[in-house]
Amino acid sequence: MPGPVSRRQVLLAALGTGTAAVALPRTAAAAPVDLLGPGGATAAGYGADEALRWLQTTYDLVLAENLSPPAAARTYAHTAIAMYEAAVRGMPAHRSLGGQLRDLPVPAPRPPAALVDWPAAVVTSAATVLRQVLPFAGADTRERLDAAEAGALLRRRAAGVPERALDASVVHGRAVAGHLAPWIAADGHAGTLGRPYTPPATEPWHWVSTPPNFRPAVEPYWSEVRPMVLTSADEVEPEPPLPFSTEPGSAFHAQAAAVHRQSAANTDEHRAIARFWTDNPGSSTPPAGTPTGLPSGHWMLIATQALALRGARLDVALDTLAMTGVALHEAFLNCWTWKYRYQLLRPVTYVNRYIDPGWTTYVNSPQFPEHTSGHSVASPAAAAVLTDRLGVFPFTDRSHDVRGHAPRTFASFADAAREAADSRLYGGIHFPHAIEAGLAQGAQVGALVLRRIRTRR
């Protein structure tokens, strides 16, 4: 891979005065000629502040819109992809995701001028895509989105970005979003909305709606959403549930008994872990946790904190966020596909029927089938990408400081993923087997994402 100095020399020679670019040969997955920002800066010449700030904005909007877990993952993924594609022409060591993500055309639009302010282009592209993926957003959300975009552009202007470059950056960001728009619209999500669904509930092991919410099944048709990297939504097949049995001493009964026993053994630390990783949407009723931007949002915030801790430049941040977003999208797609294929009941249903009629969970059981655990699938998938991009190091997760949860410190991303998975046992909402099978499933998803996407030249 060329070093940044020699690559920059090549670019400067090709650009001459900085107002035109020489066309270079294109490959299926590589973007055309890279362009420079004001002062001859590539994306690596910028800090990641605006990109990290925009992920927090996205988190806040997802929270406000009360999205489901897989819909939230879709939102973060498309936002992060839009950010990456908006700046990839200013990232000489990187290449477009066009031709790599399923059905995404290549290349992305060429910037209209050499003087592009990459942070401004990133924000504009992300904001435009967010308006598309949140088509039913309320007036308050739309106003917050508009204000966040305007605020970012004001900061870039205050930082000294010339008006001509700022205008060109906005045009470029919108062009990238326009390039992505048909691809996003054709991912099958729209076809999953508003369709009636009746859970089968013909066998004793089938999932039924659970207390205290007793709401309809969440996203039962999500398997119809197009994968980004996986060959099919069900490509990674997890270990199936254990054979169902109500007999004491059977393997399945032991799973339920373990959940019931853990709830009695929970310490204050266990309950703190369960609350920290609850990551419920706004529609979820207490007792544990407060509305959040969902599990995928938690991992995107972990990514932003880690990037800030490492002092990452804009190019590294965009690469990391895009890859993490894709991994989370694929993890939730794969997990949801198997949840509705297995249709397994939640621990609270089994325990109330066969062990303890008065037992309740510490964390509310989500309104979808049990196997496998979404936290257990998504967390190692995200951790695999973050470890690959940033390495192994301790960090403190302050994602929920504003929600009153004490920060938690981890030795590594894998350590955090393990705790996220275990939190579902402490909360009483998953059998141990679904947690372990989910961890293996998520690790496979993360490995496939890393193997099949090459962002670096």
UniProtKB/TrEMBL annotation:
It comes from the Bacteria. InterPro entries: PAP2/HPO, PAP2/HPO_sf, TAT_signal, V-haloperoxidase. Signal peptide: none annotated. Gene3D superfamilies: 1.10.606.20. CDD domains: PAP2_haloperoxidase (cd03398). Residues 333-455 form the Phosphatidic acid phosphatase type 2/haloperoxidase domain. PROSITE patterns: TAT. Pfam families: PAP2. PANTHER family: PEROXIDASE-RELATED (PTHR34599), PHOSPHATIDIC ACID PHOSPHATASE TYPE 2_HALOPEROXIDASE DOMAIN-CONTAINING PROTEIN (PTHR34599:SF1). This is PAP2 superfamily protein.
